[in-house]
Amino acid sequence: MARKKIIAGNWKMNMTPTEAKALVETLAPLVQNPDVDVVYCVPAIDIVPVVEAVKGSNVEVGAENLYIEDKGAFTGEISANMLVDAGVKYVIIGHSERRQYFGETDEFLNKKVLKALEKGLTPILCCGETLEQREAGVTLDWINLQIKSDLQGVTAEQAASIVIAYEPIWAIGTGKTATSDQAQEVCGAIRKTIAEIYDADTAEKIRIQYGGSMNAGNCKELLAKPDIDGGLIGGAALKPDFGQIVNYDK
Ligand code: 13P
């Protein structure tokens, strides 16, 4: 069975609620493709207005983060229950910006993955190497370690439902995309890791995205690769170009 492609925007820390509503309206006629799942992962404050604005459309909403506890004295944090109640379906976990700027470790990210799954949210689990790691030839070992650590305690059935995003750090926001062969090599290796941890069936089902300067010009070649099931898009998700990525097959 062919895996359905999933194109997700990661808006990062962009778009006020007013701007968010306007962007959803601009994109609405451009992101209709029945063969693709479309997700907007938006800042916490935009979740409620964006859920409202996409109602009745093909677009689902994702969060960019969640906390590992259900409730209580965790000033500034947002729980999985809050996200679910607001209509969120996906949550980005382990983006390199959170690992780098907020010190999130694999052990902590594993707890986030488990919490998201417990509450019925689909994790978009990010992994990726630095330029130094790529040049040192340790990319595949590093990604393998991230995936194995972040998925501790996740069942095969749960793993089959998640999305993994391979995002080489050197390609994020730099305009420097991995070549389609580089991206395929790592996405294929991730699928092999999943087969190793679980089984061939789970590996066949799990969806793996590429992220890092994906745009209207390079998406077609990347998405044609056998193990690339979608994209996690930063900068180009804030522009009408996002519609061209969603319709890469037209
Ligand atoms: P850019 O598409 O801006 O490179 O960002 C990629 C990314 O980090 C998506 O999560």
Low-pLDDT runs of 5+ residues are: none
Q: Termini, distance in Å?
A: 21 Å
Rg estimate, integer Å:
17 Å
Q: SSE order, as H and E?
A: EHEHEHEHHEHHHEHHEHEH
The rough form would be described as: globular
Bound molecules: 1,3-dihydroxyacetonephosphate
Total DSSP helices: 12
Bin the strand percentage.
Answer: 15-25%
Described by its quaternary structure, the protein is: single chain
Describe this structure in words.
The chain has 250 residues and is an alpha/beta fold. Helices cover 41% and strands 16% of the residues. The chain has helices spanning 17-27, 47-54, 80-86, 96-101, 106-118, 131-135, 139-150, 156-161, 180-197, 200-205, 219-223, 241-246, and strands at residues 5-10, 36-42, 59-63, 90-93, 122-127, 163-166, 207-211, 230-233. Strands 1-2-3-4-5-6-7-8 form an 8-stranded parallel β-barrel, surrounded by 4 helices. The longest helix has 18 residues, at 180-197. The structure holds 1,3-dihydroxyacetonephosphate. 1,3-dihydroxyacetonephosphate is lined by residues 10, 95, 167, 172-173, 211-214, 232-236.
Please specify the SSE layout and strand pairing:
Blueprint: E1 5-10, H1 17-27, E2 36-42, H2 47-54, E3 59-63, H3 80-86, E4 90-93, H4 96-101, H5 106-118, E5 122-127, H6 131-135, H7 139-150, H8 156-161, E6 163-166, H9 180-197, H10 200-205, E7 207-211, H11 219-223, E8 230-233, H12 241-246
Parallel strand pairs: 1-2, 1-8, 2-3, 3-4, 4-5, 5-6, 6-7, 7-8
Helix pairs in contact: 1-2, 7-9
Bound molecules: 1,3-dihydroxyacetonephosphate.
1,3-dihydroxyacetonephosphate (13P) binds at residues 10, 95, 167, 172-173, 211-214, 232-236.
